[in-house]
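Subject: sequence -> structure tokens, single chain

Hey, anyone have a minute? Need the predicted structure for the following. Not urgent.
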Amino acid sequence: MPTESDSHRLILRQTRVEDYQDIAEIMDRVYAGDLEGAWSEAQFQSQIKRFPEGQLCIEDNGKVVAAAISLIVKYSRWGQNHRYWDIVGDGFLTTHDAKGDVLYGVDVFVHPDYRDLRLGRRLYDARKELCEQLNLRGIVVGGRIPGYHNHREQMTPQQYVARVRARELVDPILTFQLANDFQVRRIVRGYLPDDKKSAGYATLLEWVNIYFEEPQAGVIGGRLSDVRVGAVQWQMRPTRSLEELYAQIEFFVDAVSGYQADLVLFPEFFNGPMMAPWNDQGPAEAVRQLAGYTEAIRDEMSRMAVRYNINIIAGSMPEYDGESLYNVCFLLRRDGTWDKQYKVHVTPDEVNCWGLKGGNKVQVFDTDVGKIGILICYDVEFPELPRLLAEAGMNILFVPYWTDTKNSYLRVRLCAQARAIENECYVVISGSVGNLPKVENMDMQYSQAAVFTPSDFAFPHDAVAAEATANSETMLIADLDLDNLREVRSQGSVRNLADRRLDLYQLKWK
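Reply:
Had a minute. Here:
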């Protein structure tokens, strides 16, 4: 038995045939008077032969002190009413299927003298890592509820499990499994008929592998984990023709695509300098004249998206539809298709100076790197819109903005940061810098482009993936790991999406 003065040398490794005596000693101690004790040596050798990767142990100074046994099954073959000895092939793992989709937990046991070292958690974590490496859908275990025999006269197994889940009771096995992110799927009667402490009942629990990828026929079409995004912090400058504007756009598209970025964001009203010739006619007429260029600019940027193999979020431009003027952002995909998102909330200044109207819907857009959302400037200050997008599967939110002063910019920035945290997504923002002396209502620009993340261990400590130098023309490049989003949504320190009290409130689009 180890003492406090002992020096532990713990090693996690695959179990070997020569470990049998140590394994048998542990099982005889753990299951004495409860179940049947240790596996036979023939069962033990069969387990290692059939699935060596799934047999794990922890040794301390050369002696095995804890172990886990697993196999792979095609779970649809067994369903939710299987029995323990059937699915484990009477302990020989004859049911192991290397082409299966689920890692099945056969057993985990720890030497009684080592139970204060959290070795069970290490083995559970090792199982999860193995599940991810083998690209299996998840882990299923049938969990005994040995604490139930103390309460069987007062409550049903369902009531007992509910109270353990609510942390009102502690079960030696179920409490540990729940603490390791397993979820109870059902209660099975007769799972282990000889388990008197559990009265023959067991919980069927599942851990879902959030990194699981459906098998692909080839490399093309596989799921991407890392997405590279670019943001253009655009310098406003006098521009006399579309050709000059195209040259500046193409410069940045070329530069960002040169870094093999998947998406690039331009600012709101980046084509504002083209209003200068109509400035003396007032801002309302100037912006309507600018709308006359929108279709041509959209088509040229669409060609650039294909030519440079990059998806372009084309900031925003005015669109004149009948007698209504809108602010619209185009998504120009590198396969030649395009979509658009209207600005829903227009600012008082946009109404008073330009006569803009707001759009009436938001949507998530499919791209070759996943689902994205687009909200133009003021829209990100309304938390309902990003939440609707998050519920529809958005991973990255792009926010083109135009702000004239720092306090105006900070409204966009701080709200964008909040949206990243509360919706567990990435948010990319970018605006323009400089001055336009001959364009009324777009005189000054203030910007500091940035990429925001959720705030948890998998992300930068300040929840900022990247940010540009304020008020300088530049571009920003950042790599975004979508697997980190999957992790924070299912295993984060807090889970803003999963923990919403939908029994009390919900958000609906009218």
